[in-house]
């Protein structure tokens, strides 16, 4: 009966089970550890390794060389926005916000295109909670236009926006401000 199926009066009998499969020794298997966490990521460029905070700054284009966009905080808000003699477009953003990064090139273009008619500033959502609370910013990115130290009525815009829609949005408000 060489491992064949046996037939009996109660039904078919199956051959004996196969021998157990070989198991790999747990101690001999190499364990792969994840790479150590670091505050540095590779930045392909001339600088080599750059801290994450610096990457975020470069990604958002904060600072003087950012095509006309200036990043400000709560302490500079009154002087830069409320006391300005020109209209100011305030963009509330965050490093972790995907739509904020998405519209960043359009905002840089806007700052260059309207540099003689408008000031564009950027405010970090996480670093300025008092401004977020005061102006009730619920979604990011948030755009608010200020003129003569006050928010222009119905100028608030939240969420990603295309360059064409951004231009239409801004032109309509700048035209209404100059007429009023």
Number of strands: 10
Q: Bin the strand percentage.
A: 15-25%
Give the low-pLDDT segments: 39-47, 58-66
Structural class: alpha+beta
User: Terminal Cα separation, in Å?
Assistant: 104 Å
Mean pLDDT: 78
Largest sheet: 6 strands, mixed
In terms of quaternary structure, what is this? single chain
State the helical fraction: 25-40%
Large-scale geometry: elongated
The helix-strand sequence is: EEEEHEHEHEHEEEH
Q: Return Rg in Å.
A: 31 Å
How many helices? 5
Draw up the topology in text.
Layout lengths: L5 E3 L2 E3 L26 E3 L6 E3 H9 L8 E4 L1 H9 L5 E6 L4 H16 L5 E6 L4 H6 L7 E6 L2 E2 L5 E2 L4 H17 L1
Parallel strand pairs: 5-7, 6-7
Antiparallel strand pairs: 1-2, 3-4, 6-8, 8-9, 8-10
Structure description:
With 180 residues, the protein is of the alpha+beta class. 32% of the residues lie in helices and 21% in strands. The protein contains 5 helices and 10 strands, in the order ββββαβαβαβαβββα. The chain has helices at residues 52-60, 74-82, 98-113, 129-134, 163-179, and strands at 6-8, 11-13, 40-42, 49-51, 69-72, 88-93, 119-124, 142-147, 150-151, 157-158. The strands form 3 sheets. Strands 5, 6, 7, 8, 9 and 10 form a 6-stranded mixed β-sheet that branches. The chain has a two-stranded antiparallel ribbon with strand order 1-2. It has a two-stranded antiparallel sheet with strand order 3-4. The chain is elongated. The N and C termini lie far apart (104 Å). Mean pLDDT is 78; it is low at 39-47 and 58-66.
Care to give the gist of this entry?
By secondary structure, this protein is of the alpha+beta class. 32% of the residues lie in helices and 21% in strands. The chain has five helices and ten strands, in the order E-E-E-E-H-E-H-E-H-E-H-E-E-E-H.
């Amino acid at each position: 009966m060489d491992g064949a199926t046996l037939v009996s009066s109660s039904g078919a009998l199956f051959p004996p089970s196969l021998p157990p499969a070989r198991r790999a020794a747990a101690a001999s298997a190499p364990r792969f550890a994840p790479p150590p966490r670091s505050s540095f990521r590779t930045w392909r460029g001339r600088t080599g390794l750059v801290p994450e905070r610096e990457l975020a700054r470069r990604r958002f284009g904060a600072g003087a060389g950012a095509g006309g966009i200036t990043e400000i905080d709560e302490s500079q808000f009154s002087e830069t926005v409320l006391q300005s003699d020109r209209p100011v477009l305030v963009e509330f953003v965050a490093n972790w916000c995907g739509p904020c990064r998405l519209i960043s090139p359009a905002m840089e273009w806007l700052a260059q295109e309207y540099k003689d008619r408008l000031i564009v500033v950027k405010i970090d959502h996480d670093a300025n909670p008092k401004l977020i609370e005061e102006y009730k910013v619920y979604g990011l990115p948030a755009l608010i236009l200020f003129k003569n130290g006050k928010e222009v009525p119905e100028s608030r815009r939240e969420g990603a926006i295309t360059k064409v829609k951004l231009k239409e949005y801004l032109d309509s408000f700048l035209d209404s401000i100059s007429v009023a």
